[in-house]
Amino acid sequence: MGKKVVVTGVPGVGKTTVINGAMERLAAEGVAYKAVNFGTFMFEVAKKENLVSDRDEMRKLEKDVQKRLQQAAASGIAAMSGDANIIIDTHSSVKTPTGFLAGLPEWVLRELMPDIVVLVETDPDQILMRRLGDASRARDMEGYRAIAEHQEFNRAVSAAYAMYTGCTIKIVRNENFLLEQGIDDLVSVLR
Length: 191
Ligand code: AP5
Prior knowledge:
Elements (H helix, E strand, L loop, with lengths): L3 E5 L6 H15 L4 E4 H11 L14 H19 L4 E4 L3 E4 L2 E4 L3 H7 L3 E6 L2 H9 L11 H22 L2 E6 L5 H12 L1
Parallel strand pairs: 1-3, 1-6, 2-3, 6-7
Antiparallel strand pairs: 4-5
Helix pairs in contact: 1-7, 2-3, 3-4, 5-6
GO molecular function: AMP kinase activity; ATP binding
Subcellular location: Cytoplasm
Enzyme class: transferase
């Protein structure tokens, strides 16, 4: 049975950047991982149903619609993962207009049963600058305090994921000028 690793972090913290670096490093060592983006699975369904025109609109959809898309993504990923080592790029929680929505509620965990949940974190001011510098996305503009609070909530809700599945929780720092260190940390849990 392959390893299932869920990688999470607030928007713009650099999850995808760290995952890509780790995948490259592992490929060079001959360790194969498949990386899938949970949001992309949700977006494919949402687009087909004409619910949104870009992925950043999904977190603003009605809660029950987001939950349905979430369920569809979880079963799609579970069906395609088989026995491979897999990295799932997603969110511990999603900030919606009516509050934080759990990214891995019971019906998602039951499908995925991760071995490890990784929280990619860095200082909120660095995240804010990364969001401002990325014109390709419609990211929420929040201040230091709101980003810090979201990261705190992600730690709290991840403790519940560990209680339900027995997975471990790994915190990986992805700091400015220290990307390679973040990649090293992720590689050490994936290897
Ligand atoms: P998703 O696409 O995952 O949105 P996101 O969090 O915005 O993810 P990104 O890939 O854009 O950000 P990132 O943290 O990976 O940062 P990146 O590497 O690009 O999800 C889309 C939507 O799907 C969600 O909003 C939600 O609606 C839905 N969704 C997903 N999962 C869900 C779930 N489980 N339940 C319900 N809904 C769900 O980097 C950002 C920038 O920082 C880049 O410019 C990069 O170059 C820079 N950077 C990275 N690292 C460093 C560094 N060390 N130093 C300096 N710059 C850096």
